What we know:
The protein is α/β, with parallel strands linked by helices. Helix content is 33%, strand content 18%. It has 11 helices and 15 strands. The protein has helices at 18-29, 51-61, 76-80, 88-97, 131-140, 160-167, 206-212, 222-225, 246-258, 286-301, 319-330, and strands spanning 7-10, 34-36, 43-47, 70-72, 102-107, 122-126, 144-145, 173-176, 187-190, 197-200, 217-218, 240-243, 263-267, 278-281, 307-311. It has an 11-stranded mixed sheet with strand order 1-8-2-3-7-4-6-5-9-10-11, with helices on both faces. α1 crosses α5. The longest helix has 16 residues, at 286-301. The protein is globular and about 60 Å long. The chain binds threonylcarbamoyladenylate and magnesium ion (MG).
Amino acid sequence: MMQPRTVVLPLSPQGPDPAALAAAAAILKRGGLVAVPTETVYGLGANALDADAASRIFEAKDRPADNPLIVHVDSLEMARSLVADWPEEAERLAHAFWPGPLTLVLPKASRVPDLVTAGLPAVALRMPAHPVALALIREAGLPIAAPSANRSGRPSPTDAAHVLADMDGRIDMILDGGPATVGIESTVLSLLSDPPMVLRPGGVSLDQLREIDSRIGYGADHGKVSPGTRYRHYAPKAPVTRIAGREAIAAEARRLHAEGQALGVLTHESLELEAGIEVVTIPAEPDGYAAEFYRALRTLDTHGLDRILLLDPPTGGRWEAVRDRVVRASS
Ligand code: TXA
Ligand code: MG
């Protein structure tokens, strides 16, 4: 059977168009793939209770089968129906941060297919803070398994055009809900340990989590614990080199430009650079930086560059999630 060409359905600012939502829900119910906007990044959604549907996600993304999917819910009731145990701690965290960019890892219920969790006995759950995602889950009456809607290894998509660039011809539909506002993925928090530990920093900061439970910390080696964080991630086609300091990056740009390299620079501070270097400047505070980072990588990629130099962002606080993405894009 031929894959249908992807259909992009723009949604009005008044809210999700009922006909578009009904069409998307019908695709999910028959095992198809729908890209959905969330507040973090676009997700590539399938019925989380249907192993065949979930297997199509792995195919469309070229995703390694040992990298589990996040399951999206629209209510605490739906979340509880997907886990073997819903501890008091989960209830507190969900009340504090859902809907929002926090993913909770908990022991899975048997109705969650092993394929979704890549064979792990735990499932990752999140209630997204986007009206379209929530409306689609409600309309379909199903939990939606959805990783970021990029081809594996590419920068995550923060608007519908990015999804189309990576997924055209591989999925059934894209719901266009406008640009993602957070711009980087959710924080993944494992409740399998006591105290819980952060497997992937993201839209909810460690400081915010510690207001609910002061014992929460980063996993001793979160790069190894969360399966997906092992892989090369978030990378544009051109190799990215991270350089600390405005003078150092300007000097390296001058040197490579003089060698004749097609060069891009991604910076959050103003730099004096030669004409002919592609420069993208993004905000110098962490939330604005996060909102524009993936888009900046994709923009630079459109210029067919030999190399991208990136000004190293600050450390600490809300910069930690951004730094995690920056380091992965450049390693
Ligand atoms: O913001 C987000 O989280 C976005 C939107 C679409 O919700 N989704 C997303 O999915 O970033 P993905 O697949 O790109 O990243 C999911 C992360 C991976 O690091 C994966 O290994 C981890 O969550 N994860 C999923 N299930 C897990 C589990 N059972 N145990 C441990 N880590 C898990
Ligand atoms: Mg991803």
